[in-house]
Amino acid sequence: MGEETPAPGSPGHPKAEGRRGPDASARSRPSGRALFRLTIIALSGAGSIAAVRTATPLTLDERFTSLVLFLILPGLLIFILGKVLRPLGIVIAAALPFVWLAVSKDPADSPLLWLFPVVAAVLIVAASGLSTAGGLQRAPAVAAFLAFALALLLPSHNRPAEGLRLLLIGWDGATWSIIDPMIDEGRMPNLERLLDNGHRAELRSLPSLFSPQVWTTVCTGCLPEVHGIMGWTNRKSDLPVGRIWDQLKLEGRSFGLCDWYFTWPPDPGDEKRDFIIPSHLAPDHLTFPEDYSFFRALETLERSRRDGNVPYSVRFLAGTCISAWRHGVRVSTLRRASAEVFRRKLGKRNNLERRWKNHLIATSIESDLLAELLRTRAPEFTAALFTQIDGAGHVFWKYMEPEGFDKVTPEDIERYGGVIHDVYAEADRGLRKILEFVPPEADVMIVSDHGFEALGNRIAGKWCRVRALKLIRALGFKGKMFGTNLGAELYAWAMAETKEENEAILAAVELVLSEAHLEGEESPFFNVSRMDESIRIGIAPRETLSGESSVIIDGTSLGLRRLIKASADPAISGAHAPDGIYLLSGPSASRAVGADSLHVVDVAPTVAAILGLPASPLWTGRPAIAGAYLPPASPGDYPPPGGTGEEPERISQELIERLRALGYLD
Description:
Blueprint: H1 14-20, H2 22-55, H3 63-84, H4 86-104, H5 115-132, H6 138-153, E1 166-171, H7 176-184, H8 189-196, E2 198-204, H9 211-220, H10 224-227, H11 244-250, E3 255-260, E4 275-278, H12 294-300, E5 302-304, E6 308-310, H13 314-326, H14 331-345, H15 351-376, E7 381-386, H16 388-400, H17 410-416, H18 419-435, E8 443-447, E9 451-454, E10 463-466, H19 468-475, E11 481-486, E12 489-494, H20 499-514, E13 517-518, E14 526-531, E15 534-539, E16 550-553, E17 556-559, H21 560-563, E18 564-567, E19 574-577, E20 579-585, E21 597-599, H22 603-611, H23 653-662
Parallel strand pairs: 1-7, 1-8, 2-21, 3-4, 3-7
Antiparallel strand pairs: 2-20, 5-6, 8-20, 9-19, 10-18, 11-12, 12-15, 13-16, 14-15, 16-17
C-alpha cells in the first residue's frame, strides 16, 4: 500500500506547509520593510512641513513643489540609504525636520517651534521599535500619510497687520492707458478690487518727469528747487527738508520703507516695528534691521552691461536662498528664480528675455518680502517703490506699439509684444500677496511718478540721444557734472562744492552749448533750456544728419559719432509721459475729493491728513480729502535727515552701470 496523503488544509498537506514555510516568511519581509520606510518618510515630511509652516507661514505657497521638497526627494534619500543600512535611514528621517526648521527659523522665533521636529523624531523612533518587534501594520503607515497630507493641505492662518494705518505703493511709470484695458480683460483683479472701494485720478507730474525728483516730491511735498534733489547722484544728506517718515520718527511713530530712493544709509529705528530697505541704487547692502541685507544682494550678484541687474545667480541659490526663505520669499518665487538660473547657464536666454524675466522675478521677490514685513513688523505707515514697470516700458514699448518703429518684425511682436502687460500682471499678483496683511481699517494708496508713451522726436529719420558722459567730458567738467538721458533729451546738473560754483558751471554750459553748431553751418545744433539747478539738452530738429559730421563746441571740433547715438532701431523705445496714476482705497476714500486730476505735490499732504500729521509751510499742494484739517507745523517739524557720516563717491562705476542697465545712460 502507498503512503496516505494528508487531506487538503491539514497540517501535513504540502500546500499548507508552503504557506507557513520559510519561503513565504522571506517573501513577506521586504514588503514589511518597505512599509516601514514609507511610514518614516511620511512622518519626517509631516514634521518638516509643520515646522516650516509655523516658522515661515508664507513660504509654502505651492503644494506640488512642497510635495517634491518634503516627500519625494527626501523619500528617495531615506529609502535608498535605509535599504543599505537601516539605522542610517532612521537617523536621516528623524534629522530632516530639524534641518528644515534650522533653515526656516529666525533667531527671534519661539523655542516651541522645536516641538514639531521632536514629536516627528519620537514617532519615527516608535515606528522603528514597532517594526523591530514585528508589530508594524498598515494602520501606522496610513496614519503617517494622513498626517503628511494634513500638514501639506491645511492653509496657514495669517491675520492682517494690526496697527497699519496707511500703505503707500509706488508703481514707477504706471499709466491708466494700460491698466484700464487690462482690468476690462480681468488681468488685474486685485487692483480692480481696490478701485471698487476707492477714488482714482490722473496724477500730474513735474515738468522734468525725472524719477528721483518726482519720488522725492511725493514724500516731501516740495518741488525740486526746495527739496534739492536734482538727480541720481544726490544723497540723503542733500535734503534740506524732511519727508513724511522723518516727521513720524520725530513723533516716535513707526514706519517701514522698501526700495525708496535716498534712504541710504538706513537710520536705526524701533527694533520691533520699523524697517528700511534702501533703493537698488544704494552703494551697499546695508538695511535696518541688518538681516534683511540679502534683499539687495539678490539684485547685485550678477550684474554686467549686457545683462543689466539680475536678481539671482548660482550664488543666489547657494548663498542667499536660506536668508530669502527665512524672510518670507516664497517657494514659487524661488522655483522660478532657480529655473531661470539654469536656463541662463544653458544659454537659453537672450538679452531681451533676461530683462523680461528680471522684471517679473524682482517684482515677485519684493512683493514676498513686503508681505512678510507687514506680517511680522506692521508699522503704522509703510512706503514701497516698485520700479519694474518703468524698466519694462523703456525697453519693450516698441513691441507693444510697433507703429513708427521700422525694425520691429512680426516675430518680435509675437514674442515681446505682451511683456509690458506681463509685468503689470505680475505687479497685480504681488498686490494680492501684500493686501492679505492690510487690515480693513487701513488705507491703501497707489501712485506713479509719471505715465508712459512711445519715444518721439526723431531727428533726420533716426532716434538720437546725446551721450551724457562723453559730452560732459568734452566740456571739461568730468567729476563736476553728471547727466541722465530721459527719452530723447539729456538732463545735466552740476556737483561742485559750492552753490556759486554750480551756478557758474551751469551758466558756462548753457552758453557754450547754445552756440554749438555743425561744422560748415551756423544754426545751433542743440536746444538748451535751464531748469532751476539743471539743464535740459536736446538736438535741434533738422532734415539731415551725417555721422561723419563734426560739432564745433567752444571752438573745438568733435566727431558727431562720439557725442550722439543715432539708430533706426532704438534700444530705448518708451518715454515718460506727464500723467501717472493715483488711487486711494479704504475708509478715507469715502471723503476723497471728486477731482479727476491731482498733482504729485498733493500726495504728501494727503498722507499727512490720513496719519494726522501737521502741514509743512513749504508745501504747495493740498490734501485730496474733503474737509481734511492739518494742524500747522511747529518749529522743528519735518526735520531734514542730516548728514550720513562717511559717504561714498557720488559717481561710481557701479552707479554708471546700474543707470546704463536701466536705460538712463548710453
